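Students often ask what a 'structure token' actually looks like in practice. Rather than answer in the abstract, let us consider Tetratricopeptide repeat protein 4, a protein of 391 residues. Its sequence is given first.
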Amino acid sequence: MAQTNQDKPQPASAELPPAMAEVQSQSMDDLLKEMNRMPLFMTSLDETDGEGGENMALEALKAMAYEGTRAEIAENFRQQGNECARAKQWSDAKEFYDKAIAALKGPQCNPDPDAEGPDVIPVELDADEEAKKEMVIGEAVYVNRALCNLEKKNYRSCIQDCAATLRINTSNIKAFYRSGTACLALDKLQEAAWACNRGLSLDPGNAPLQTLKTKIDARRKYIESVEKARRAREEKTASERATLKLALKSRNILTRSTDKAPDLEDAAVKLENSMDPSSALSFPVILLYPMHSQSDFIKAFADKERLDQHLDYIFPLPWDEQHEYTVNGVEAYMETCAGGLIKVGKKMSLGKVLGSGKPEVVDGLVTINVVPKDKAAGWIEEFKKRKGKTA
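Now compare that with the structural description of the same chain:
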């Protein structure tokens, strides 16, 4: 029986080159790992040789970034920065611009004077030409780094980069626009307006600068309106304070402030018409029940009102189990500025009591002690002893 082609022995394939033979023996994962070490195929940074050593291919590529003159090195970093900026990768772009500026400030890389051989071509740098190149690159790098700082809200750094740009070229429109924008963000409106106006003097039709000017003007008007309102409030408050002081003085009401004023929230001595010293006064009043260590607070006690009018709705007291506190069964006392006591007539207006010139309104609060009539004498005696001990 004749042999078919399938039964015939297949000729041996040609041997693979050594490098390819090595690849053929690797798994797919190993192959991808190996490719990732090659700069051309890198998807993640691998700075080792896979065994903790140095990745020579990557190091050689990185070293190339620092080969050449200052201008060449800086230009290389500038281009990389521009690529990141176009992708709005502001942090990466700024890092490349930082390297470009560092290269411009570094030593000039002249050809090795000791290099020999037929392939060595002697090169002499034109200092003036190199200086011009460096200025052009420096201007572009500083103004682009200013953009990165502006986008990252590093406003002061942005202004500094714009200043560096303008030291190189006093007519750089982008520098005026970006510094003006940064100054506006910091509410440095005078500086923002100067930068904007300077840019418009060079390019009157520049749309971004015209928009910036509108924003600066609007912000200035807003701040001026806020400041005007603040001054008006302060003037009104000062006028109200002076009117209240006049009202108290004209009624012979004594006041005193201490460094331990209580928190009364919005309760305060007030005129019914804050600008009319003759209008009705009201006072925050605290009623103390010293025999039981209790109290009641009256937020606004009008100067024409009497104590019994308030006691009428406050009594009976929930804690008064003996029913000692009734309108007719209590007496009221206020401490005088001399340290004594004055009896408060329950049917006497508060304004008349305070106008006697004996009690004080301390820290904007009127204090009235309320005690049962049958215990008043004992409480007064105890008060005098306590004051004597204090003295």
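One point worth highlighting: The first helix runs from residue 18 to 24. Ask yourself how you might have guessed this from the sequence alone, and why that guess would often be unreliable.
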